[in-house]
Amino acid sequence: MLKEKMNDNCAMSVAGLDPSGGAGIICDCKTFHAHGIYATTVVTALTAQNPYSVTGIEAISTDFIEEEIDQIMDVYPIKYMKTGVLYSKDIVKTVSRKIKEYQLKAVVDPVLISESGKNLSEDNYVESLHKYLLKNAFIITPNVHEAEKIADKKIESQEDMIDVAYNLSKYCNVVVTGGHMEGNDVLVEDDNLSIIEGELINSDNTHGTGCTYSSAVTSRLIQGYNLADSCKMSKNFMVNAIRYGFNKTPSQFWEYKF
Questions:
Q1: 129 vs 77, 176, 247, CA distance in Å?
Q2: Residues of the chain whose pLDDT is less than 50?
Q3: Do residues 154 and 147 lie in contact, with contact meaning Cβ atoms separated by under 8 Å?
Q4: What is the pLDDT of residue 117?
């Protein structure tokens, strides 16, 4: 159809809606646009939240999620996509099936808990990730707390991050982000280890950092960078986004070139 004539500089976010704009699909769109990537979105859940609290979450039906994906893929030449809040086993299963159907390269941000501490997934979510999604992902981008839950191992040091990253790499590539440790990220790509050095910033502009980072990685992959360089560049983007953030969220606007 029309997608044969379209620029393939576009991405799809399959995630939840944060009406405050700091996380979720709004954050993803801001990050894509900051990198010059056209953004499409598939809403998986509606939330009532702000940077301080989440008071409600309502999942979208899997039939409607599937219809959203099909409508986008019918027109736009999406090759890379990213996931955020998927919330339930049924949604994880549906999205995993669509990734395989359309042969998409998926950057998976395995969102479990909001910045304010609210559970954003059902009890069997981690089991569903293992069973359906991780084997169909191109890379997962958990923070330390998410990696602990997915690998069922406590992380107290960079050595623990490395062990967990290798453990999870049996499914797909993995980068464990170090914002909750000393700032360094651990990337395992095809059994090759890279330590991406970073810094901790004294800032409270951290609501939506996982969404921003995973969207930045997706953007760089679309632009043709390899995985290691995409993660390094996204690390730099994330640091600056936090440094220049506002309203308790990272700023996704510094990347624009005028």
A1: 26, 16, 32
A2: 258
A3: no
A4: 56
In this structure, the chain runs to a length of 258
pLDDT for position 258 = 37
Residue 232, pLDDT score = 97
Residue type, 4: E
Name the pairing type of β-strands 185-189 and 192-196.
Answer: antiparallel
Say which residues have a Cβ less than 8 Å from residue 257's Cβ, sequence separation at least 6: none
Q: Are 32 and 40 in contact (CB under 8 A)?
A: no
Between CA 252 and CA 30 the distance in angstroms is 6
Task: Give the per-residue pLDDT at 3.
Answer: 61
Question: Cα separation of 126 and 110, whole Å?
Answer: 9
pTM, two decimal places: 0.94
The residues with which 26 forms a beta bridge, in sequence order, are: none
* CA–CA dist 5, 51 (Å, integer): 40
The pLDDT score that the predictor gives to residue 253 is 75
**pLDDT of the residue at 181:** 76
3-state helix, strand, coil in the chain (%, to 5): 40, 20, 40
pLDDT at 15: 97
Q: Rounded CA gap, 89 and 95, in Å?
A: 10
> CA-CA distance, 135 to 143, in Å (whole number)?
19
Rounded to 5°, the CA angle 101-128-74 comes to 25
Distance (Å) of CA 168 to CA 36, 66, 160, 164, 230: 31, 27, 12, 6, 19
36: left (phi over 0), alpha (psi -120 to 50) or beta: left
Which residues are paired to 173 by β-bridges? 139
Residue 118: what pLDDT?
Answer: 56
Take residue 92 and report the two structure tokens written for it. Answer: 């994880």
